[in-house]
Amino acid sequence: MSAIRITQAVGLGGTNSLNDVKAVQTALNKLLKLIPPTQALIVDGRLNPRPENSKTIAAIKLFQSKVLNMVRPDGKIDPNGRTHRKINEKLASQVAISGVNTALKMPATNAFWMKTAIAEVGEAEIPGIKANPQILEYFKASKFWGSDDSGGQNAWCGSFVAWVMKQNNMEPVKNAFRAKEWASFGKPLDKPVYGAIGIKSRKGGGHVAFVVGQSADGNYLYMLGGNQSNSVNVAKYKKELWDDFVVPANFDPSSASLPIYTQKASVAGSEA
Predict the structure, then answer these.
(1) In terms of residue numbers, what domain contains 115?
(2) Runs of H (alpha helix) within 31-179
(3) Is 5 part of a structural domain of the chain?
(4) Within this chain, do residues 48 and 138 fall inside the same structural domain, yes or no?
(5) CB neighbours (10 Å) of residue 189?
């Protein structure tokens, strides 16, 4: 789904025709990551007899508050209005991200957390004072206080790793928003394997990301990380740049390997 079409207003004070409400409910279910802690809506085309108590209305208001930054969400979606256009923008973006995720194949592995990491490929910063709500969720996972996802002071690679691990019931390190702190996570490895967390230095700080493969000659590593050129993606780095590799304490690296990476990747760029 890349867009929805509604013929009349949906929500508080709207006409709320059956098909229009269904379209909105379906769209909001596709965008649940943007409006936590909203649970999946029942797609029945109906609102509560008291619309102000409707879960669909609550989801609309939360979308308006979190994504549109409305101070006073009105709980209403007008055809081609501001909320309608933003929903379609986010749906289109999600379709594009889904295409990237489909292309990034996951090998047979016990590094189960990588499924979560791969699903985030394509999440990106929003320039200016606004922020990607998903990146703010990364901040929460690392207990980082920032509210802006862009700028060098709000580098979020460590927060991304923290969010991935928390989604898989693993506690991040203290001060997880600081990349180099991840060197104390779990147990260290002598060499990288698929799914390991890699830590490196950079000017002004550090960087942390997940290992997803190596070049055929073994001189380069492909790393899936956040804040790599301001987004979650796979980037190619010289192997020698990485200082440490760690895995969860209960992970058995003897059964893991490091495949040759042949999929899409960018050249390593900014990490600030």
Answers:
(1) 107-267
(2) 55-66, 82-103, 114-119, 133-142, 157-167
(3) no
(4) no
(5) 18
For residue 175, give both structure tokens.
């001060």
The alpha-helical segments, DSSP class H, found in 104-221 are 114-119, 133-142, 157-167
Of the residues 54, 80, 98, the one at which a domain ends: 98
Contact assessment for residue 272 and residue 205, using Cβ atoms and an 8 Å cutoff: yes
- Helix intervals (H) in 73-129: 82-103, 114-119
Distance CA 88, CA 180 (A): 39
> In this structure, what token pair is assigned to residue 161?
């790793």
Whether 3 is in a domain gets the answer no
Beta strands in the chain (DSSP E): 10-11, 76-77, 187-188, 197-202, 205-214, 220-228, 231-238, 242-247, 266-267
pTM of the predicted model as reported, rounded to 2 decimal places: 0.64
Task: Answer left, alpha or beta for residue 174, where phi above 0 means left and psi between -120 and 50 means alpha.
Answer: beta
Tens digit of pLDDT at every position of the chain (272 positions): 668 999 999 999 999 999 999 999 999 999 988 898 899 999 999 998 898 899 999 999 999 998 898 999 999 999 999 999 999 888 876 655 555 444 577 787 899 999 999 989 988 887 666 788 899 999 999 999 877 666 556 789 999 999 999 999 999 999 999 999 999 999 999 999 999 999 999 888 899 999 999 999 999 999 999 998 888 999 999 999 999 999 999 999 988 999 999 988 888 866 65
Q: How far apart are CA 6 and CA 17, in angstroms?
A: 9
Q: Give the closest residue to 165 by CA, choosing from 250, 83, 82.
A: 250
